[in-house]
Design brief:
The protein is mainly beta and 279 residues long. It folds into three domains: 16-94, Roll (SH3 type barrels), CATH 2.30.30.40; 101-155, SH3 type barrels, CATH 2.30.30; 163-277, endopeptidase fold (from Nostoc punctiforme) (Alpha-Beta Complex), CATH 3.90.1720. The chain has helices spanning 163-168, 187-197, 206-212, 258-267; strands at 16-17, 29-30, 33-37, 41-45, 54-59, 63-70, 73-78, 84-88, 92-94, 101-103, 107-110, 122-125, 129-130, 132-136, 139-142, 147-149, 153-155, 180-181, 184-185, 215-216, 226-230, 233-239, 242-247, 252-257, 272-277.
């Protein structure tokens, strides 16, 4: 059998997705059930425990195929990037109508009525997906009655023209392994969120991104939007002289002179593995 990556293929020794039968070994194979994320942010963990490692995050409105539910946890696969892991079952609900809009701001408040002086009932991250039922003056209203200022939203198929400008909005955001929002994110989360805002498909982890995104380029011709890869790290070129990246050195999303960052990371024993130009 060809070894499949368990990060993006739903299989464990105990259980696996039905479509993987014959490709992996498992005690039983099951058909998944489609759900959607109903909380602003749902953590995706390595194991069914709040103490388990945070691998990624799923955002409101994302679809999830669930293969097993046990003791308040659901094991499944995100449809947006294929990532597999454990989510709180309370964060999931039955699949509803297709989303019509997405949050374009770093964070958007949802109010219980058409008044910004009301206490907000949710803070929605960039990329959260909503099904808008109607408009009420300056507010977009969901079927559940959430009133979100329309200025925060864009149609689901809209694309940002400059993904680097999206990444720049996150400068100062704390570094969080597995994070994907303005509360905290990691290097590959910053790249994924920014590229997705521009309508570019992007996997979750930096090693996957190095293989899947863009075409090979070089440091000699570095330009805005190029991606620089190291083992377990990725940065975005803001221009030929400056990078933007979420990194554990600054413990935040930061601008850094390209040559200084490359030299600093080299001293730590990590060489650049590829430069990719996003087309």
């Amino acid at each position: 059998m060809v070894a499949l990556d368990p990060r993006v293929n739903p299989f464990r020794p105990e259980i696996a997705a039905k479509h993987l039968e014959g490709q992996v070994e498992a005690k039983r194979f099951v058909e998944g059930i489609r759900h959607q994320v109903i909380e602003p942010i749902a953590t995706l963990r390595r194991a069914p425990s709040h103490d388990a490692r945070l691998d990624s995050e799923a955002l409101l409105g994302e679809r999830v195929t669930v293969y097993e539910t046990t003791e308040g946890w659901a094991w499944g696969q995100l449809e947006a990037d294929g990532y597999v892991g454990w989510l709180s079952a309370n964060a999931l609900g039955p699949g509803g109508p297709a989303p019509t809009h997405k949050v374009a701001a770093l964070r958007a408040f949802a109010f219980p009525g058409p008044d910004i002086k009301l206490p907000p009932i949710a803070a929605l991250p960039m990329g959260a997906r909503l099904t808008i039922a109607r408009l009420d003056e300056r507010f977009a209203v969901t079927a559940s009655g959430w009133h979100v200022p329309e200025v925060y939203l864009m149609p689901i198929k809209s694309r940002r023209s400059d993904f680097v400008a999206v990444a720049e909005q996150f400068v100062g955001t704390p570094y969080l392994w597995g994070g994907k929002t303005s509360l905290g994110l990691d290097c590959s989360g910053l790249v994924q969120v920014s590229l997705q805002a521009a309508g570019i498909t992007c996997p979750r982890d930096s090693d996957m991104q190095e293989l899947a995104v863009g075409k090979l380029s070089s440091l000699a011709s570095l330009r805005r939007g190029d991606l620089l890869f190291w083992k377990d790290h990725v940065a975005i070129a803001r221009d030929p002289e400056t990078l933007i990246h979420a990194n554990a050195y600054h413990m935040m999303v930061a601008f850094e002179p390209s040559m200084e960052a490359i030299a600093r990371i080299k001293v730590a024993g990590n060489e650049i593995t590829a430069v990719k130009r996003v087309i």
